Amino acid sequence: MNVLLLTISLKNSMTTKPSKDLETFPNPQTARDFTIRFDIPEFTCLCPKTGQPDFATIKIEYVPAELCVELKSLKLYMWSFREEGAFHEAITNQILNDLVRAISPKFMRVRAEFYVRGGIYTHVTVEHRNPNWIAPEVVTLP
């Protein structure tokens, strides 16, 4: 009975919940292109065919324009997929679409590296590029 009370107490005391709301803040350096990278190694969703959990590392990199995505809201956004069934390709594209809609970056790449299922690893990469943005030249140092 104590375990049950503890479980109920923990569920009632959680102050954060999954959310599809992505909060933003102003880019602190709009005059310079720079890259922000996130590695999210605990992403989970459900297989739409079996209902079993799928696990992935989501890698996001972007060059911000006017806005940046706030990390806590990104964490809650990623958490919101835990009970949703979706194919790997669909969920990776949805993440990109939602982030682009929230912050309109100059460039963004989302890579989902799903762990093995049925002996197959699935990696899905999707990109967005603002047509008015010109990528800086790569600098190769000696």
Overall description:
This protein has 142 residues and is of the alpha+beta class. It has a single domain (16-129), classed as GTP cyclohydrolase I, C-terminal domain/NADPH-dependent 7-cyano-7-deazaguanine reductase, N-terminal domain (GTP Cyclohydrolase I, domain 2). It is 26% helix and 35% strand. The chain has three helices and six strands. It has helices spanning 2-13, 71-79, 88-103, and strands spanning 24-26, 36-46, 53-63, 67-69, 107-117, 120-129. The strands form two sheets. A four-stranded antiparallel sheet has the order 2-3-5-6, with helices on one face. A two-stranded antiparallel ribbon has the order 1-4. β2 (36-46) and β3 (53-63) form a beta hairpin. It is globular and about 45 Å long. The model has no long low-confidence stretch (mean pLDDT 92).
Overview features:
142 residues; alpha+beta; GTP Cyclohydrolase I, domain 2; four-stranded antiparallel sheet; 3 helices; 6 strands; globular
